[in-house]
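S., here's the first fold you wanted:
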Amino acid sequence: MISTPTPLVDVPEPGSAEELRRFAALQERLEPLARKVLSNPRAPQTVVVVPSLTLDVEELAKVSGAHHYEERLLCMLMLLRLPRTHVVYVTSQQIPTAIVDYYLHLLPGVPLRHARSRMTLLSCHDASDVPLTQKILDRPRLVERIRAAIADPEAAHMTVFNSTALERTLAVRLGIPLYGNDLQLNYLGTKSGSRELFREAGVPLPEGFEHLRDRGDVAEAVVELKRRNPGLRRAAIKLDEGFSGEGNAVFPYEGAPEGKDLARWVKDELPKRIKFEAEGETWERFGRKFEEMGGIVECWLEGEEVRSPSVQCRINPLGEATVVSTHDQVLGGPSGQIFLGSTFPADADYSRDIKEAGQKVGKVLKERGALGRFAIDFISVRRGREWEHAAIEINLRKGGTTHPYLMLRFLTDGTYDPDDGLYCTPTAKPCYYYASDNLKSPLYKGLTPDDLVDIAVDNGLHFDGASQQGVVFHLIGALSQYGKLGTVCIGNSHENALKFYQDTVAVLDREAQR
């Protein structure tokens, strides 16, 4: 039951010294709250989930159905399995009842009525491209309703997709701490900041240049990389704040001259030869965006076999930095840089190597005061019988590997062993999964959430709590309009998890043509 909202008074100006002071005071609550909940999972708490993708609007527009990505954190509803935890989930638009019911029925051992009584869903009723957090701040009455849904602010916190000044302001207005990074650290999650931090941590990275500001800088960097590496075939060009690979491009050196003619050749050929990952991107627009946010140019790593694993880490409010998972990313796009999904765990041949690199990065981030989840992406190249790894990016936020792993944890209540890279259930059964954010087909357009549930039930596409295997869907709201949804397919081996995924695709393709 939501009580009568209490009007906000004495609201500090965003970014003011008073707001910063209040935010710092709120953040001091996180450590004792974390200790309390860790020691007693039955302790009362409220988790306010604000799944705002507070990112560059133009870059976000490259992702089809981007506003439905607010649904990826619906995995946080699984916290309702803790009997005295209340979840407040705020979205831009209302989430269909069928989708909410789908998640609540996944809760192990919790009566539906009990879970519903501890869940508050609120919406801005706003489908615009404005970040969700800004929409909330623009609606003082909605802020009051969120505050009213928090039984005890001393036992509450806010969790978000990524932390910016907007999230800080909202935390202050709600009077609860933010489980996320201080926005002053955000530059460490840019492509340039990542390269700086990799050097500080002693983690290998591709040769290249960061903090480039315009198209002239890009051309000079492309020339210099070729001069230093005459055999280099391609260079990667990346916007500092691009994400999911959509802000990346490739420049091929095929036919490049040597000596003094190289610089003129690159200047002439760059606008014509550059190949973008994002569909419909142009050199003019890309160059303008580069001038706004900066970026990097680095060597394109090649070899007999190339993969892109990632390691997911967490720094908790107690100041403990841990590796929580490793993945092999599933990539697509014109040159294989767009994130489509992941397999868990990463290949045993190198999972330990990237875990150790993640620990080095985590140590530096902890010293800088980072908080929450982050992931490090690598390019791994096989050289004979060995693998060489180069770190290419830090995602200093929740990302594409966050929600699949959280679903696995919430559904199976198992543990991850960072030493051998395996995740096992309480009965010591290993778990694997194949996850995708981009199961997409024009055939799927027009299928509603209710249709998907019917198809899943009729064809046995569901997670079985007894065997602790099966399929879980997400991004369900994007299905009807965009023909797109996500899956987490959990099995007892990589092969079994992949088969669950392939069977899911086959069923959806067949049913969509009826």
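And the second, which I think is the more interesting of the pair:
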Amino acid sequence: MALVTYAGFPRIGLKRELKRALEAYWRGEIAADALQDTARALRARHWKLGRDAGADIVPCNDFSLYDHVLDTAVLFDAIPERYRPVFANNRLDGYFAMARGHKRGGYDLHALEMTKWFDTNYHYIVPELHAGQRFALRGDKPVAEFLEARALGIYARPVVLGPVSFLLLSKTSDRSQPLTLLGALLPAYTALLQRLAAAGADWVQLDEPCLVLDLDAAAQAALRQAYAALAASSGLKILLASYFGALGGNLDLAVQLPVNGLHVDLVRAPEQLDAVLEALSPARVLSAGVIDGRNIWRSRPDQVLPRLQRAQARLGAERLWLAPSCSLLHVPIDVQAETALEPARRAAMAFARQKIEELRLYADALAGGAQAAASLAAQQQRLGAQAQLPGVVDPEVRARLRKLGPQAARRRSDYAQRRAAQAKALPLPPLPTTTIGSFPQTDELRQARAAQRAGKLSASDYGQRMRAEIERVVRFQENIGLDVLVHGEPERNDMVEYFGEQLDGYLFTQHGWVQSYGSRCVKPPVIWGDIARRAPMTVAWARYAQSLTQKPVKGMLTGPVTMLQWSFVRDDLPRATVCRQLALALRDEVRDLEAAGIRVIQIDEPAFREGLPLRRADWAAYLAWAVECFRIATGGAGDSTQIHSHMCYSEFNDIIEAVAAMDADVISIESSRSRMQLLEAFVRFRYPNGIGPGVYDIHSPRVPEGGEMLELLHKALGVLQPQQLWVNPDCGLKTRNWSEVEPALRHMVASAQKLRSELRL
């Protein structure tokens, strides 16, 4: 019988137990032992859940206290020298210093850079290496967790990020080529695999997601070198795992490597199955990723079962493993916890547990199980019925899309004319200061929102509390001297969920949390039908904030691409079509904000780069519709309305022309963790419009000094013209505390004022 397995499981817990334990530890409320106890309990619970759901083999070492790429760097001693004294004092403090920064005990350390994990909304910590880097096996996390599972009577397969992908995902402080370090790294990998073999493991999964990228000759040679060395000396069977796309031109390379099994993504790239079956050599296992590890819809048996039958006919049941397309890290844990969902809607959904159960059904059906086959047939019928439910198709929305002409995606005038109009309407100083939108979300605010949802706080009392917080935030910003203000977003639970709650076509979960980074969790809303806006979403709050001050207040919206990327999206329409529906809804909101007297409107697109396909051949098509959707959202704005957009944790070299084509009047970007290195993209391409490179890393608790921010602004002026430059943090401030935010923003404003004086502006 075909085996059922999976590549990884969500770490955070059904009730975000890991998040709460981490944040309690960081606040000093619990000790390290208590944090590790929570982690151990979660691992045990999740292994048992996977086994009980029908998995024959569960993964281990997929759990992390913060990030698996950071774990890999620490495991192989790729620790920058500046962090080593903190590690020497306390290993856990050193680990978190690399992730979050560290400012105590005489140390003032920035966090390592953080960026998106391929085209997902998960963020990984970027390892920092250098020429001549030495590696060594440090610690025993993969071995310890394998033994932990075995002590519970659970057969587990260790999962480790592969050596070539680890290096390709890293950066070097001296601009040397990371792949030149492969020879130094491989002995540490060999030592790990040998220790796993000695502990009793027979298989190890080495993840090489780089196999779905356009690899040059050096990367291909590195893969050959790495797996020749590991296969010869490890004593383990190796499952080589690729995901997030097709192997494409790397298929021949992958099947030639001396490994014992190959995992491929047959959700993103079902068309590659026949080529993989033809190329796979005898005796090697195929791990067929046939269930979507990145979305929450149940699979379609009429599509999946025939593929598996072809694979089994070619390979035999003993060489076929059934798996999700990738780690289940990207989906929530258990849809059965969603008791508030309509049963008909819930029946179409599969979270992590249900995905493993689906795989069990497919395995049993392949083995001739009549009951499993009947269950799959019933699932197919339920999915067909879902497509007929009211709201899936909205004729009015579809008609409006058909009538869209090219003018809808154009501003009325070019940037030079708009800038002149905005200078008259918005008399701002040089180097204007602002924030990205949100201010700290205090416990009092969260409790007020929860009470209002539960009916324990009246609408009038809730509105009074929100208006009081908005006034507090506006007065604070005026007091410290910010130039363009925000209302602080106290009413918003999440930058996507808040808008989705006010749009037709969305539904929401109670426990559908997924990890974004570290302890940061998001609860993506679910797009199940056509999108329509029936009433203004933000206008009342923005109008109230503007009534409190003579300074401009930004209207704050989440852009259509980010709304799409950070939702679980319906799988029966092209993503571009869904995005255009979102763009039209936001266009209406922009119109209403303008009518309410709001002259600065920020439409955030932090997921714009995230959506870029992994293969360069697919970029042009994505960028065309992504840019078009942003421009549809903004195209109706008048010349004197200043349109901002925010992007964070992106490499801009690949998309800088598309960013310019969006034609926002001002963009703000994350750049403080990279110490302004992300601005290198703006050297090659002279960006014409306004730009605010972040000078305050809000993902770290450390408070930067004014001199540090001034230094970053000087670096920015090495690339940008003074008339382009805005001064702002990297991102919104909702995850920070007021005790951190207030001094940091005061330092930021003082830095801008000092630079104006230096430049005599």
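Why I say that: Residues 417-502+537-759 form a domain with the TIM Barrel fold (CATH 3.20.20.210). The chain has 28 helices and 23 strands.

Talk tomorrow,
H.
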